[in-house]
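Observation: inputs received (chain + flavin mononucleotide).
Thought: call the complex predictor directly.
Action: predict_structure
Action Input:
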Amino acid sequence: MKAALAGRTVVLGVSGSIAAYKAVELLRLLVKDGADVYVVMSENAGRFIQPLTFEALSGHPVAVEVFDTAETASMEHVRQAERADCLIVAPATAGTLGKLACGLTGDALANFFIAYGGPTIIAPAMNDGMYAHPAVRENIARLKSRGAHFVDPEEGELACGRVGPGRLAEPADILAAARAVLQPVRDLEGLHFLVTAGPTREPIDPVRYLSNPSSGKMGYAIAAQAARRGAEVTLVSGPTALEPPEGVRFLPCLRAEEMHALVQENFAGCDVLVMTAAVGDFAVETVEKEKIKKNGDAPLVLTLKPTRDILKEVAQKKTHQFVVGFAAETENLIDSAKEKLRKKNLDLIVGNDISAPGIGFQSDSNQVVVVDRAGRADPWPLLPKSRIAGLLLDRILEARRA
Ligand SMILES: Cc1cc2nc3c(=O)[nH]c(=O)nc-3n(C[C@H](O)[C@H](O)[C@H](O)COP(=O)(O)O)c2cc1C
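Observation:
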């Protein structure tokens, strides 16, 4: 039988609990299940267990120190591990939960968590009093609201001699949680998703162009997760620095006109269109064949013509397709999103306020409002784009069934 986690990369984060020794058993189970495991430790975890144990069992250097230059090699591994499929923090102490919930850095585990942003499983371990403390409860609630999965501690005799909830869950149960996260349900099987992503690029002359700072991260995350959940996915992408996701039919393009043609060609055969691309609204009317020369202080005047509205045109042709648009706005977010949904005959629109700092275009996180045809507007909290992608796919499925 094929190992359940074959081909998956897992980062195991260990913090300073008496239960740290159980992380060794968890590591062994993960490796046995086929996962490639990297271990990242909080500084205090090293007081309970030696990195060497994890190094020997995982076959990779272990990240412990943040500032130790001799660890450049393990930092390189940390960078590779940032592309991991899942982070498991087990055991998670009260202190580490606080650091993760508040986004504090300072040790290798907390730093890794901030840089990572992917699916995370947290298995707390502490005494019952600490576990019941409002600060710990709030930190757990905060992490849950951002999508972290928790494997709750068990009741029983604790290391301090007391009896209550706080004992780290059994490694086999944490492994089961990892399997559930890493083998997502294939609930999109039989559906064809057409996803657009990235900016478009309108040439001015052979060396200059008009574009925008869209990174493509949102669309790539949606395409990757839809494919993982069993959908057939076509990704039409403007120029980005991202690798095309695995298992996706990838159609690159530059100009809005090219993106328009690719979407038109593929629309009839799709079930769901998700337009995350930041398509330029204007293109230069006459593209110069030669590089435009600077003429002293004389201004350069370019005439721009509007590009075709891809979303509006395809949405008018829709038969059975479910069409999702994105609206990047700088004011009146919800009203503008509702207006766009109506005008463009969309089924769902995801609005985000790009004037707010730290979210939107280049960022790994976003804060969006999802508006449906009934005019219901759901504001979602600030979330990693990977999490927004998963929730949006759930929402599309739910709306299609309704
Ligand atoms: C013997 C011993 C066992 C401990 N076990 C736990 C524990 O299970 N859970 C916890 O939250 N803290 C525990 N602590 C306290 C943490 O080690 C301490 O709060 C530390 O600062 C946590 O650091 P870290 O979260 O960065 O690893 C223990 C401390 C000692 C000395």
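Thought: report the result.
Final Answer: The radius of gyration is 24 Å. The pocket of flavin mononucleotide is lined by residues 15-19, 42, 44-45, 93-96, 107, 125-126, 130 (CB under 6 Å).
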